[in-house]
Backbone:
C-alpha cells in the first residue's frame, strides 16, 4: 500500500492497524507500522491516533500515550470519548488509578463529557486496587448526575465486596439494583453465589442459584464450578456430582475446573481411587489436565502416603508439556520430606534454582522440619542462616519448627542455652510474628526439661515460666486446638506452668 502510486486512504491503513490490535494483540507491530506511516508523511486521523494510544497503553508506555494525546490537541482534532476512555483504561491497567481520577477531573473541568464506560473503568480500577469504598462513593456521586449507573458498575462493586467477604453489603447492593429496575444478570448472581460460598453460607448460595433459575437467567460454567467447588470443600462430593448432572442437563459442559474440584473433594473424603479415576479419564471426557490438576493429584497422593505415585505424576508433567509451578514443587518437596526422603527433596530444591523457579519460605520450611526430624540439627540451623542471607524472611511456621526442633533435639537444653530461647522469642515479636499458645507451651517445656540439669538456675527458670504464662494470659492467647496441632491437649500449658 505504501509503494502504490496512488496512496490509499488512511481508512485502509486504519483497518490493518485495528485488525492487528483486535485479533492477536500485535501492539508492537502496529506501533512500528504507524511509524512507517509517519515516515511516508501520511497524515493520521483521530482513529489512527486512538489506535496508537491503545497500543502504548497496553505496552505500559503511558508517557508515549499522553504524547499522542498532546499531538491530537496540537493538530486540532477534538478528542472523543474513545480517546479519553482509552487513556483512563490505560492508566488503570498500569495500576495508576489515582492518576486516572486526576485525569478525569481535568478533562471534566475542561468541558469534556465522559460516559458509562469511563466510569465503569474507574470503578473497576478502584476495586482492583482494593478501594471498594471509594468505588461505592463514586457510584453515589455519578448516579443520575453525570451518567446513569448501569448493571456493569453494580456488578463490579458487588464482585469486589463478595471477594472481601462483605456479602451482606453486596446483597444490599443487589436489592438496590432491583429497586432501580436494573436487571441482574449471570455475573451478578455468580458473584453473590461465590461470596456466600466463601463465607460458608451454602444455603443462601443455593437460594440465589434457584432464584436466578426462576428469573430465566441461565447459569454458566463459572456459576456451576463455584457451587461444585463449595460442596467438595465441605466434603459433600455426592451433592457435587448431582450438581454436575444438573450442569450437563442445562447444556453446560464441565471443564477442567469442574473436575479439579471433584478430584480435590474425593481426596478430602479419602476416596483416593475415585480421584485417580477422574484424572485418568479426563482425556476421554475431552478435557486436558492443567497444572492445577497435577497439583491436586500430587498433594492428594502425598497426603495418602503414595509418594512414589506422586513422583511418577510429577515426571509425567514434562512429557505433557505442563510446567510445574511453585505449588507443585512445594507440595512434592513436603511429601518427600515427610516420607524422610530428604536427598530427593533437596534435588528438587536445586532443580527449582536451576530452572529459575523462585523458592519461598514454604519450600524451605519443609526441608528444615525434615532435617530436625532426622536429627540433623546443625544442618537445619545452617539452612536457616543461608536463606536469611538470601533475603528470604522466616515466618511463624519457621520459628515454630526451630523452637520445636531445638527443644526436642536437646540443642538448647543440652547446653543450657536459655538466653537463645529468649532471643529467638524476641526475634519473633520484632519481626511482627505474634506468638501463639503452642509457642508459649514449647518455651515453657524447654525450661522444665532443663530444670533437673541446672539446679542453680531453678528459681530463675520458675520466674521465666511464670512470665511466659502471664504473657500468654495477658495476650488472651488461650491454648486451643489448631489445624496443625490437633493432638495437643488444650489445657496442657496450664499444667506445665503450674
Residues:
Amino acid at each position: 500500500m505504501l509503494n502504490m502510486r496512488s496512496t490509499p486512504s488512511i481508512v485502509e491503513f486504519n483497518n490493518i492497524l485495528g485488525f492487528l490490535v483486535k485479533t492477536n494483540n500485535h501492539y508492537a507491530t502496529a506501533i512500528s507500522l504507524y511509524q512507517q506511516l509517519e515516515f511516508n508523511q501520511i497524515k493520521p486521523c483521530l482513529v489512527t491516533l486512538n489506535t496508537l494510544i491503545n497500543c502504548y497503553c497496553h505496552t505500559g508506555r503511558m508517557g508515549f500515550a499522553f504524547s499522542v494525546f498532546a499531538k491530537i490537541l496540537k493538530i486540532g482534532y477534538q478528542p472523543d470519548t474513545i480517546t479519553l476512555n482509552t487513556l483512563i483504561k490505560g492508566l488503570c491497567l498500569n495500576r495508576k488509578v489515582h492518576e486516572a481520577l486526576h485525569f478525569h477531573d481535568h478533562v471534566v473541568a475542561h468541558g469534556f463529557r465522559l460516559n458509562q464506560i469511563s466510569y465503569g473503568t474507574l470503578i473497576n480500577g478502584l476495586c482492583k486496587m482494593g478501594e471498594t469504598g471509594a468505588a461505592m462513593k463514586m457510584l453515589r456521586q455519578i448516579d443520575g448526575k453525570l451518567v446513569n449507573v448501569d448493571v456493569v458498575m453494580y456488578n463490579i462493586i458487588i464482585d469486589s465486596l463478595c471477594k472481601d467477604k462483605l456479602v451482606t453489603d453486596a446483597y444490599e447492593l443487589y436489592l438496590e439494583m432491583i429497586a432501580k429496575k436494573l436487571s441482574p444478570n449471570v455475573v451478578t448472581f455468580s458473584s453473590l453465589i461465590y461470596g456466600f460460598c466463601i463465607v460458608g453460607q451454602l444455603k443462601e448460595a443455593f437460594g440465589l442459584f434457584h432464584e436466578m433459575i426462576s428469573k430465566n437467567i441461565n447459569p454458566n460454567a463459572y456459576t456451576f464450578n463455584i457451587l461444585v467447588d463449595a460442596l467438595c470443600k465441605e466434603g459433600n462430593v455426592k451433592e457435587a456430582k448431582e450438581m454436575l448432572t444438573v450442569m450437563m442437563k442445562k447444556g453446560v459442559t464441565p471443564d477442567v475446573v469442574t473436575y479439579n474440584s471433584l478430584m480435590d473433594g474425593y481426596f478430602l473424603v479419602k476416596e483416593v481411587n475415585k480421584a485417580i479415576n477422574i484424572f485418568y479419564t479426563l482425556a476421554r471426557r475431552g478435557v486436558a489436565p492443567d497444572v492445577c490438576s497435577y497439583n491436586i493429584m500430587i498433594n492428594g497422593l502425598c497426603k495418602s502416603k503414595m509418594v512414589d505415585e506422586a513422583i511418577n505424576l510429577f515426571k509425567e508433567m514434562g512429557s505433557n508439556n505442563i510446567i510445574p509451578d511453585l505449588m507443585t514443587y512445594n507440595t512434592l518437596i513436603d511429601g518427600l520430606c515427610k516420607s524422610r526422603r530428604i536427598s530427593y527433596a533437596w534435588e528438587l530444591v536445586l532443580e527449582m534454582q536451576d530452572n529459575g523457579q523462585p523458592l519461598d519460605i514454604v519450600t524451605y520450611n519443609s526441608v528444615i522440619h525434615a532435617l530436625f526430624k532426622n536429627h540433623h540439627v546443625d544442618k537445619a540451623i545452617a539452612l536457616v542462616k543461608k536463606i536469611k542471607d538470601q533475603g528470604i524472611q522466616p515466618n511463624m511456621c519457621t520459628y515454630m519448627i526451630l523452637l520445636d526442633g531445638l527443644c526436642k533435639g536437646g540443642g538448647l537444653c543440652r547446653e543450657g542455652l536459655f538466653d537463645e530461647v529468649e532471643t529467638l522469642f524476641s526475634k519473633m515479636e520484632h519481626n511482627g510474628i505474634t506468638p501463639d499458645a503452642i509457642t508459649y507451651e514449647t518455651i515453657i517445656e524447654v525450661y522444665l526439661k532443663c530444670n533437673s540439669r541446672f539446679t542453680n538456675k531453678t528459681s530463675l527458670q520458675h520466674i521465666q515460666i511464670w512470665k511466659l504464662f502471664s504473657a500468654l494470659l495477658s495476650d488472651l492467647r488461650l491454648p486451643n486446638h489448631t489445624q496443625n496441632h490437633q493432638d495437643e491437649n488444650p489445657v496442657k500449658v496450664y499444667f506445665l506452668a503450674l
Remarks:
- The chain has a mean pLDDT of 86.
- Residues 143 and 149 are 6 Å apart (CA to CA).
- The two ends are 91 Å apart (CA to CA).
